[in-house]
Specification:
The complex is a heterodimer. By secondary structure, chain A is an all-alpha fold. Chain A has 14 helices and 3 strands. Classes of the chains: A mainly alpha, B alpha+beta.
Chain lengths: 413, 255
């Protein structure tokens, strides 16, 4: 078996430092936004006593869910032994770490009392899925660091499959925990469903791979690293399969609700009458974030896959944000059912569909999480050997021919 | 193992000793037990401030919806006054611990008006989901937020089926010393725990009585002789969303 050689980014790339500076500005702006929200109180945001979680949560959940899925490529390489993906395992682990750190930073900075982070780290109520998640998230970081180490330290390479297996199981549990934040909410019509856990796992696989594809393409472009069309096609088709799995679980989620007359109200709201939420669901998530990218990656032109796979990844990325927005904000906008069968009215907006407009501080804070993730990846690539010398198809698979790639290797589902 | 006949095991001296010991124990413990029983049956006001809260009391509130007048806001006003909840003219973010809800049956047009606040559930979802344990239930059933360890994540607000909690969106001033509040934390009706611990009733209950409504009855649901216990035993009462199985401490009559 050929041994892959890895390298760090070297040389004084103007683009590298320019990008770092731009991301640094975004991070500073997000810190300023968090300070503004903390100093003034959350009334300067679009969040209220009715919509208690807003745009920071949408973007933080996206980052956390994508972090788990960013590890797909490493898992496929080390756990399932696919040679094509093995050289990308290190980058996959780095991206997973970076996305998780970015997501957690946003989540923490949105807290009403972010200064009490030590309380959150030391005082636990173990009946809370939130408390479990604190362990799942920090544990995930530790597991991925070990996983990266056994991949990067040659003497430890033999432990990579075992570490990969642990990491894969851990991330499935982690995303189960994240989905269950909503699944365990007994009172809300939009949540309180066991399917939230597998739905979030499917979302993590799809969104994480989309983030990975975009990161890989940007890295290869920025470092003049050759990226083989065969590899890109594989990543694209895998993304298509995973996007279809998300659509499947979304269908199960809504069909199960539609069957129960009790949930007819929330379903009518999301699927038909919810205005921006209905538009985001059908147009954003289902069509642009699901059907179009699936169609794109299963009709790849031979030898020119990159453009389409990138477009599909961008669409899945945006569709994922739309989906989480509909789940988080749409689920809260629909009124709680306190008195089934009765019309209700109060000074506290009972029975009213709430509107929500994300404010600039919220958006800026959330975007800062993405910038932080990007900076961590860039610093990692600069400091350590995460990148293989070549990602040309011939370097990945000695049996590869220049012929168009097709069905010679099915993407593992 | 061999069996033992009654004759073999009989020991008159041992029997006498046990009888005497039981009698002595009875004489020693009986006054204490009797005293405890009297205390538990009476008002928890008998509890000295230094004594811990116990589960021998379960505080509850009964609202007779027939007596709750449409348009009367006395309970809400009293709560705002008592707990220093003055808002900032921003209804979407200002805190509300108690609110009047108007109900209408769309099929018959029948209307109802009732106060809604934290229902002080026996199995409160807000307590279950709180990551730090800031949301907690006292032994006597009052659900509170520990302002010192609330991190302001608002998960409890998502979990509460009654929308009973508010997040403090702005700096609060002129706080009452017995009802501490703080920007960035979550709060809700405390059943006026500071008054209850002094043997008084919540401000809303007192105001309702003063306004001539007398729609609210506060008391110990564990005490069969309390007014609230007698009423919930005599009349059919409802809990809001009983299907959730949370066993709220607030009950409604004639809903």
């Amino acid at each position: 078996m050929r041994r892959t050689t890895y390298r760090e980014i070297t040389g004084q790339y103007i683009g590298f430092y320019g990008l770092m500076a731009g991301l640094g500005v975004l991070i500073l702006l997000s810190l300023a936004a968090a300070w503004h929200m903390e100093h003034q109180g959350h009334h300067v945001t679009g969040m209220t006593n009715q919509i208690v979680w807003g745009m920071p949560h949408v973007l933080a959940i996206f980052l956390i869910v994508a972090a788990s899925g960013a590890l797909n490529v490493a898992s496929i390489g080390t756990v399932f032994g696919r040679t094509w993906y093995k050289p990308l395992g290190r980058l996959s682990g780095l991206l997973a770490l970076a996305l998780l750190v970015g997501g957690l930073a946003v989540l923490v900075l949105d807290l009403g009392r972010a200064d009490r982070i030590l309380v959150a780290m030391t005082t636990y109520n173990f009946k809370s899925i939130f408390a479990w998640n604190i362990y799942l998230y920090t544990g995930f970081m530790a597991v991925v660091v070990v996983y990266l180490w056994v991949q990067m330290e040659r003497r430890m390479n033999r432990f990579a499959p075992a570490a990969g297996l642990v990491a894969m199981i851990w991330r499935l549990v982690l995303t189960t925990g994240t989905g269950s934040i909503f699944g365990f909410l007994v009172a809300r019509q939009a949540y309180d469903a066991a399917v939230m856990a597998p739905l979030f796992i499917a979302m993590s696989l799809s969104l994480g791979l989309a983030c990975f594809n975009l990161t890989l393409a940007a890295t290869c472009r920025g470092t003049d690293l050759e990226l083989g069309d065969g590899l890109v096609s594989r990543l694209g088709r895998l993304l298509g399969v995973l996007a279809a799995v998300v659509l499947y679980f979304t269908a199960v989620q809504h069909l199960a609700n539609l069957y129960a007359a009790e949930h007819a109200g929330i379903e009518r709201f999301i699927l038909l009458e919810g205005g921006v939420f209905t538009a985001l669901f059908w147009l954003g998530q289902v069509v642009l974030g699901g059907l179009v990218p699936i169609a794109l990656v299963f009709t790849l032109p031979a030898g020119r896959a990159l453009g389409r796979v990138l477009l599909a990844s961008i669409l899945v990325f945006l569709g994922g944000i739309a989906q989480i927005y509909v789940i988080v904000i749409g689920g809260q906008a629909y009124p709680l059912v306190l008195f089934p069968g009765k019309e209700v009215q109060s000074s506290f907006f009972d029975g009213v569909v709430m509107s929500y407009a994300p404010s600039w501080p919220e958006i800026t804070l959330g975007v800062g999480g993405f910038a932080m993730a990007a900076v961590i990846v860039m610093v990692g690539l600069r400091a350590l050997r995460f990148l293989p010398e070549s990602l040309a198809d011939a370097a990945l698979d000695p049996h590869h021919s220049a012929a168009p790639t097709g069905a010679e290797e099915k993407a593992p589902a | 193992m061999t069996g033992r006949t009654p004759q073999q095991g009989f020991d008159p001296q041992r029997r006498r000793f046990l009888s005497a010991a039981a009698a002595a124990a009875g004489v020693t413990l009986a006054p204490g037990v009797t005293l405890y029983g009297v205390t538990a049956a009476g008002s928890a006001a008998a509890r000295a401030p230094e004594d811990p809260v116990t589960s021998s009391v379960r505080w509850g509130l009964l609202v007779d919806v027939n007596k709750c007048r449409d348009g009367c806001n006395a309970c809400v006003t009293a709560c705002v006054e008592e707990n220093g909840l003055r808002g900032n003219g921003r209804p979407e973010t200002d805190a509300q611990w108690i609110r009047k809800v108007e109900l209408r049956d769309p099929s018959t047009g029948a209307k109802r008006s009732l106060p809604l606040m934290c229902q002080h559930c026996a199995s409160p979802p807000c307590v279950d989901v709180c990551p730090t344990g800031a949301s907690f239930k006292r032994a006597d059933g009052i659900v509170l937020v520990d302002k010192h360890i609330c991190i302001g994540c608002r998960y409890c607000m998502l979990a509460c089926p009654y929308k009973a909690r508010s997040f403090i969106h702005e700096v609060v001033e002129d706080q009452k010393p017995y009802a501490p509040r703080g920007k960035g934390t979550v709060e809700s009706c405390t059943f006026c725990v500071h008054r209850v611990d002094e043997g008084r009733t919540p401000a809303c209950v007192e105001a309702c009585a003063e306004a001539g409504g007398d729609a609210m009855t506060f008391g110990d649901l564990n005490d069969p002789n309390s007014r609230i216990s007698k009423q919930v035993a005599a009349y059919v009462t409802d809990q809001i969303r009983p299907d959730l199985g949370l066993d709220p401490g607030v009950r409604y009559r004639n809903l």
